[in-house]
Write a structure and sequence with these properties.
It is a single chain. The chain is mainly α. It has a domain of 90 residues. Helices cover 43% and strands 5% of the residues. The chain contains seven helices and three strands. Strands 1-3-2 form a three-stranded antiparallel β-sheet. Strand 2 and strand 3 form a beta hairpin. Helix 1 crosses helix 2 and helix 2 packs across helix 7. The radius of gyration is 22 Å and the shape is elongated. It starts with 10 loop residues before the first strand and ends in an 18-residue tail after the last helix. The relative contact order is 0.14.
Length: 199
């Protein structure tokens, strides 16, 4: 038995993820995204936790068919996407896949990302500016250039986190959203890349 036959019953996360992939969620979401998205839906009260990884849909009656339930869930998700808590739904729902996705960057971030003098030093006339940047100056320069992006990442992850949505879940969701905005999918796991010191 599965949610396709009896959507009012309790099922595992895997079965619910398959059910949501069939006409509700974007088809490019892989298995790694199953738990983060289901946890996000738990925080939005679309799903209810029954413990031990078992879930059920909230406010579904036994008489409703899977098709009726999906239609009702889609309407609820579309309404939730206009709320603060459900802001990220537009990036995951297949009903939004052909629409222009909103950017994550707000006006305050674009105004603060204008180029500035990164060293904040005044040079005296005749004093030669060194083109040989120290490591500290390079780090400061890259830090200033990355600051707007890092601010967006931190604020978005903070908005995504909830009772069920962990930091790791929120990072996966943010990565997927970023790739969606850049028209790259599916989301890839972030890895730190070390760099060799230049001499």
């Amino acid at each position: 038995m599965s949610p396709h036959e009896e959507p009012h019953l309790i099922y595992s996360e895997d079965l619910w993820f398959e059910w949501f992939l069939d006409g509700i969620l974007n088809a490019d979401i892989d298995g790694a995204g199953g738990a983060p998205i289901l946890h996000y839906l738990l925080d939005l009260n679309i799903l209810v936790s029954e413990g031990n990884g078992l879930l059920k849909l909230s406010r579904v009656s036994k008489e409703q068919s899977s098709h009726e339930v999906k239609k009702r869930i889609l309407e609820a998700l579309n309404d939730l996407s206009k709320s603060e808590n459900g802001f990220a739904l537009v990036y995951f729902l297949s009903s939004f896949s052909n629409k222009k996705l909103p950017p994550l960057i707000t006006e305050e971030h674009t105004s603060s990302s204008k180029r500035k003098n990164i060293f904040k030093k005044n040079y005296l006339p005749g004093e030669k500016q060194s083109s040989d940047l120290s490591n500290l100056q390079i780090v400061k320069k890259w830090g200033n250039q990355l600051r707007p992006f890092l601010d967006v990442e931190q604020k978005t992850i903070a908005r995504l986190r909830g009772t069920y949505t962990s930091q790791e879940d929120a990072q996966w969701l943010f990565s997927y959203i970023l790739n969606k905005i850049r028209k790259k999918s599916p989301a890839k796991k972030w890895e730190q890349i070390s760099r060799k010191r230049h001499r």
